Amino acid sequence: MKRFVVLVWLFSLTVAFAWSAHETLTYLIVKSTLPNADDLVEITPYSYNEKRIYNIERLILDDVCGRFMVNFIPSWAKFYPPDPAPINNKVPVWQVLTVYSVEPDLGMDEGLNLSPLQSIIGNSQGVRHMKYKLLFFDFFEGSESFLYFVEMSKQAFQRNDRYWGYRFLARAIHHLEDLSMPYHNAPGRLGDVLESLLWNREKGMELAYRHFSYDEYLAYLLYLEDQEAINSIVEAQPKRVKNMRELIQRVRLLGLRNLEDVDEIFVRVYPNLDRSLSWNDFEASAKQLEELKRITNHIMKDFSAYLKGFLLDFLTQVGEI
Ligand SMILES: [Zn+2]
Known about the structure:
This protein is mostly helical. The strands form two sheets. The protein has a two-stranded antiparallel ribbon. The protein has a single domain, classed as P1 Nuclease (Orthogonal Bundle). Helix content is about 55%, strand content about 5%. About 45% of the residues are buried. The structure holds zinc ion. Zinc ion binds near residues 17, 105, 174 and 178.
């Protein structure tokens, strides 16, 4: 039994996908920011030598625009981005960024041998999607993943391959979004993390359920078209930073600084959580979650401001706007 619980705990840390509804968040940011969001780009085949390895069976290299959203969006969603079929082998910029901002969560990083640390956490996807800060140490490669795809995007634009320029940029956006998620910066509050590691494995499961549940909370707000959440994203004004290092730091801090408050609310409203919550749980306790909504909207507003600033600067730099 003990072994099983340990395995579940280890597994739970890495099956974490971060915010659900990546595509809807990206869509709202891109449509409200980019002057060239409706520009059409020609779909081109993949032709890159990469330094990264992927799970080839799960990696998608064909274009899936027009076929993606229908299979991906949950049936209870009322609001989500459109997904028109390509016309004359062309798709708009907003659609490439929207559809492929989900891609890194679809298995391309699973089942790989990426780091000696992954034997402790069980799965390779988490290695690339998280950046834990525990005491004075950083673990995993979430920020490196963002930088890697910014570099790949730059390369593609230099080759005048606009389609892959935007596709790689969408993956970079995914990783930056992941870094804004509190539970992608630490599994929980330090005391709980130590407890789960040292003497109480069940605590590890509880932390994982809080993480999954908070992932779902953003999906709940966006898919059910919460106007305050949508406005906080759409109305955020682009914020500039000095360089990519500062961008990553500021986005990670958004996650880290709000971890304690988010965690406290979960403990108060859902003590001894033993499953992942979904939209109907949140709907049932909406009154008690008002503070959680306020914090989440605040993270979304600040994150959107940073991502907007980055996209405008980057696309200017590569000559797209
Ligand atoms: Zn992810």
